[in-house]
Amino acid sequence: MPEVRYIYLWWILTAFTVSNAFGQGLMIHNYNVKDGLANATVYAAVQDKEGFIWFATPTGVSKFDGKRFRNYSKKDGLTDNDVVKLYADTNGRVWFFTLNGLFSFYKSNVIHTAANDSTLKVDLHGQYMQYMFEDLVHFPWFLNTDNHVLKYDNKEWKYPLGAAITDLFYFLKNIDTIFKPLQPYFNLSTLKDANNRDQKIIPINPFPINDPAFYARVHKEPVVIIKNTLYTYHRTEAVCFFNGADWGIRDEISNICLDNDNLWIGTPRALYYLKNFFKGERKLTKLLDNHYITSLLKDRDGNIWITTFGDGVYNIPYKDFYFNYLDNTNGLYSHSIFSICKDEKSGILLVGQNGGMLNTMDSNLVIHQFNLDSTSGRNSILSILPYKDNEVLIGADNGLFVFNTLTQKVTLRKPVKTLKDVDIGNNGKIRIVSKDQVITDEYSTRIPDVLLTSIVSINDTAYYVGSNAGLLYGTDSTRQMVIPGTDVALHQSIKDLKWINGDLWIGTSDQGLYVVKDNQVIKHLSTADSLVSDICQQLYYDGADRLYVSTNKGVSVIDVNTKKRIRNITSNDGLMSDDTRGVYYQRGILYIATSNGLSYFSDSNMPVDTVPPVIYLSNVKYGDSSFLPNKNYFVHLYQRKASFEVEFGAIAYDLPELVQYQYNFSSDTASGWVTTMSNIVPFPDLQPDTYQLQIRARKYKSDWSKPIIITVTILPRWYQEWWARGILILFSLLLVFFILRYIVRRIKQGEKRKTEYNRRIAELEAKALTNQMNPHFIFNSLNSVQHLIMEKEEKQALNFLADFATLMRQMLNNSRKSYISLEEEIAFLTRYIELEKIRFSNVFVYHFTLEDALKDYTIYIPPMIIQPIVENAIKHGLAPKNGEGRLEVKLGLRNDMLYCSVDDDGIGWERANNIKSSRLIKHESTALSVIRERLQIIKSFNGNIGKLEIIDKFKFGFGNKEGTLVEILIPIVKML
C-alpha cells in the first residue's frame, strides 16, 4: 500500500468575502514516487471502464486501484515511455498518446501495439495524435497534428475524409449528432470557425448561472478554454460562463473539472475551487499554491484527482465535501480541542482549547480568539454550557468564566483550582467539582482520598458525583457524599455522568457505559455490544433521544429509549481524529471535537459508501508458470508438485487499507467462505480434478461484491491416465499371481520338509529304540534269567521273562506312535526300572512324584525320551555305587510343557565319565544327542522349545550330596 501523506490546507477567500474570515479545511492526499507512482511529473489522468485510475508520465504509465500502483514502460510493451495523453473509450481500452505517433492501447491485461496486433499498423507520415472522439457506434476517431482524420473500426485504419484537411471544430460542431468527446474540455486559441460563419460568440453570459437550463447546457456541451475564460460550445453559439479576470485569476486556465454545482480550475500556478458556483455563490478558494496543475479528474465515486508537474498526484476524497474542518491551519489557536458549544441565538460557535484560549466563529465564518486567565497553569477549557440569554458558562482549569455573546467579553465568575466539571440544574443552580470538592454558590464540600471527575444534577437539591473510585450521591440539605446502593458496578472509575429521563448514564474509564436506575445497574454497554471503545471521555445528550459517547476511538451514538447503539463515527467516516473529546448537536449539524481539530457536518447527510468495490484478478501462478488474469475463465493445467497461487485486488479509493476479501474453493458458499486481508491466496498440491475458486471483496461499510470465478482443471500426468492405470492394475494382478504362486510353492515345500522331518523322527525313534535295547541290556537280562534258573528260582525267572517280553512288546508299540499318554509312559518306565532292579540285585530304590496339576489334564508326550535318562542314572550312577542307592523321578507342568527331573544319589556325572568304558561313553553320548535332536525337531512343528540339562550335584553346590540331576522340558499335547 502506498504511503499516504495528508495535507491540511486552509482556504483564503477572495475580496468577495470578509478579509479575515476562514473557511473549512480540506484533507488532501498526496501520492508520489515513493508510493509507487512512475514519476512525480504527471501529464494526465483518466478512469477506465473497470474503475482503475491511469496516470501518464514521462517514464511510462501507472495504473492505480487505490492501494497499489502497477507501472508500465517500454519493457512492458509501450511504444515510448513518454506518454503525454490518455483516453479511455467505452470498449474498455485505454489509449496511450506518445510523440512518436505509434498507436497503442491497453485491454484485458495486454498492451496492444503494431508489434502484437496487426490491426494497429498504419503509416502516419511522422505525425502524432492530438484528440480522440467516439462515434455513435463506439468506433474511435482521431485528429492528428497535420489535421487529418483517422477512424479505427477495430479491424483496420481508414481516412474517412480522404486527404481533406480539417480541424477540431469538425468534431465539436457534430457533438451529440455524430461524435462523443472523450475529454471534458478543449484548450483553443480562438473560437472562430472558418467553416461556421453563422456561429455566435457571446463573451458575456446573458443567462443566470444558476438557471437549470443553462446548468444542463454547460454540463452537456463541450467546454472550450480560451486563455482564462470558459465557454460552453454549441454549433450555433459559444457562451462564456466564467471569466477568470472577474475572479482575480490572472493566469491562463490549463484544465477544469465540472463537479456537480462546483467548479474546479487548474492553472500553472495553483488550483482554484468554486464551491456552489452553479448555485450562484461567489466563493473562490485557492489550493495548492505554486503547483503546476496539469489535469483534473472526478472519478465515479466523486473523488477529485489533481495531477501536477513535479509534485505527483493529489486526491481529495469525496467525504471532504460533506465534512467541515477547523484546526490551527485555518483559524484556531491550536489543533487540540477540549470542548465545543454553539450559542443558538447568536449562531456563534465556541471552541475551547489549551492555554485558556477560547475561539469563536460567527455565521460569517469570522474567527476571534479570547485568552482567559492562564497565569497559573495550562487552564484548559473543559466545559462550555449555555447559561442565560447572551451568556455562555465556561469551565476551565483555573476557574469558572462567563462569555457574553453580545459584548464579546469574558468575565471571571468564580476562581476554582483544578476544576473538573460544571453542571447547571433545571433551576439554574450551578454545581462545580474540582479534584476534591463539590462547590456551589452556597457551600463547598471536600471529599478526601478520591479524585472527583464529574457532576450531574438530578433535581433542584440532589446530585451525583463521579470519581476515580466510583459513584457518590449528595444533597444540598446534608452537604455530604454517600455511596449509593451496593452494586459493585458503581465502583468503577467514572469519567462523565448524564441524567436522562430518570436514568443515570455513567461513562467509565475502561468499562464502557452503565445505565443506573434506583441505584441499580439496568444496562451495560461495551465493545461487546459494538461500542466503539470502553474508554469513555465525555457524554453528550442532544435532547432528542440521542446520547453521544466520546471515546479514544471515535463516537458512539446511543438510543436512550432502547438503550442500544445506533452507529459509530470514526476517522474512517471522516473525523479528523479518533481521539474525541466532546460533541455538540444543533439544527441537524453535529460538531465533534478531537485532539486534531473540529469536524462538523450534517448529521442526516453523513456519507457512507455502501457500493461494493470492483474486484479484479492480478496474477495467476502455478509453479513457475504465470497466466494472464481474466474474469470467469477456465484454466487447464497439468498436475505438478507446486502451489497454485492467485493474486487479486479491489478498486477502492476510500479507505483501501480496510478492504476485506473472501474466497471459497468449494461448492459450500454458505459456510465455506474464508475471510482475509491478504490479496494473495496459495493452494498447495492440488490433485487432478476440476476446482472452482470464487473471490469477493467489500469496502468499509459496504456489502460484499459479486464474486469473480476461476474454474481450474488440474489434468493428470500420463501415469495418472486410465490406460496407465489399466497397465498398472494388470501388472499388479500379475504380481499378485506370482506372489500367490510363490506362497503355494513355499507351502508345498513346507509340507515336503514336514514329511522329511517325520521320516527323520521315525529314524531317530528307531535309533532311540536301538539305543535302549542295546546288547548289554539284553545280555545282562538273559544272564539274570539264567542265574535265576540255576538257583532253582524258576518262578522268579518265569516272571522276569514275562516282564521282559512285555517290556519289549511295549517298546515296539510305542515306537509306532508320535505321542503317548503320560500314564503309559509312567507304566513303561516302572516296568523297565523293576527289571533293572532285578538285574542289579535290588541295589537301589525308586520313587515317582507327580504334581497335582497333572491330574487335571490328559498329557501326551513323545515316546522314548525319559527312558534313556533313567537308564543312564541306573547303569552309570547307581550300579557302580557301594551300597543301596535312590532314584527319584519328578513330573510337573511348567508353562504348558512337561517338566521331568531324574535324580539319583549315585557316583555323579563327572566320576561316572571317568570310569566308563569307551563303548559306554559312545552309547551315552549318542543317546543324549538323539534326545536333543528330537527336541529340536519337535520345536519346528509346534514352536515350543524343549530343554535338557545335566547337573553334577557335588560339583554344582548341592552340599556334600553326590549323584546326578537331569532336568528336561518336553513339549506336550494337553487336553482336559
TrEMBL record:
Domain of life: Bacteria
Keyword Signal listed: no
GO molecular function: phosphorelay sensor kinase activity
Transmembrane segments: 722-744
GO CC annotations, alphabetized: membrane
UniProt key word Transferase: no
Ranges in a coiled coil: none
Alphabetized Pfam families for the sequence: His_kinase (PF06580), Reg_prop (PF07494)
Residue span, Signal transduction histidine kinase internal region domain: 765-842
Keyword tags: Membrane, Transmembrane, Transmembrane helix
The protein's name: Signal transduction histidine kinase internal region domain-containing protein
The organism of origin for this protein: Chitinophaga oryziterrae
